[in-house]
Amino acid sequence: MTSTSSPTTPHIEVRGLRRTYGTGAEAFEAVRGIDLVVDAGTVVALLGTNGAGKTSALEVVEGLAPASGGEVRVLGLDPVADRALVRRRTGVLLQVSGFPADLTVAETLRMWAATMTAPRPVEEGMAQLDLVDRADVRVRSLSGGELRRLDLACALLGDPEVVLLDEPTTGLDPESRRRVWDLVRNLRDRGRSVLLTTHHLEEAEALADRVAIMHAGRIVREGTPAELSAGHPSTVRFAGVGALAGLAHLPGATRVATDRGTTTVETSDLQTTLTALLVHAADHGVRLDRLEARSASLESVFLAIAAGDHDDESGVGDAGAATTLEGVTR
């Protein structure tokens, strides 16, 4: 394969991808025929319930493993057969790094730069991830968040056209996480493409142009965050159980539940239900402590998928009822 991408070629194109571990009776199909497209200048987030196959799929896109079936193209090339050509134009962040513990931050980046065709200055890479003050610190002495920032600095040192990030903000404090979000947005604004996996639903909502949700090896939902959350309930929560009667009859309310001192009202019309709730509380002289109103979000979609509430021709939907969720944050 010698072809390269044109301005109209997707940066990443996955068609019917399958990945199987083992053979014969012991074979396990972790990825079961997924399609995914990432265009230039876009961010796509790949989410999923535990064991959904996200990392197994990403490793094929990264060129770290061959596909068992289907086809993957990165910049118009096969990421395995054309690895030498693809690698110089991509930046890859794995879940776990393997840097020598005795090297300093600066030495690690210089070592990494030596493997690249046209790296950016090491000092620029450190500044981008706020590592200048840690330049002479050995890897073994870095905190988990600092090590993750070093991983990212290496992934971006070659100014890649395609960036593949496997849980990029794991271990980062809120300030560092926001800085990484700004970096991802800047990559998109400069026409780069980003495919990332994440445990944080708010991260996908904040960054992604499109979200693909995997379950049991398949993509069961795909679209913009707004498209995915459409049709799912918004919620109103407040402290107190039984403080008000008749909540189930609030306009727009579809479900009322109480749990550990918190009342949750699900609604198909957040503004109408919230307005009626406030009027109802005022009429009864009740204060709604810790009142929280949230529009439908990816959390709603995840909860529905975990409960088996999704279209799945394979019939695996019911099996998802006991699946734990990666990324449901409250």
Automatic annotation (TrEMBL):
GO function terms (MF aspect): ATP binding; ATP hydrolysis activity
Bilayer topology annotation: Peripheral membrane protein
Record has Chloroplast as a keyword: no
Annotated localization: Cell membrane
Alphabetically ordered keywords of this record: Antibiotic resistance, ATP-binding, Nucleotide-binding, Transport
InterPro entries (alphabetical): AAA+_ATPase (IPR003593), ABC_transporter-like_ATP-bd (IPR003439), ABC_transporter-like_CS (IPR017871), ABC_transporter_ATP-binding (IPR050763), P-loop_NTPase (IPR027417)
GO annotation terms (biological process): response to antibiotic
Keyword Nucleotide-binding: yes
Similarity comment: Belongs to the ABC transporter superfamily.
Protein's name according to its UniProt entry: Efflux ABC transporter, ATP-binding protein
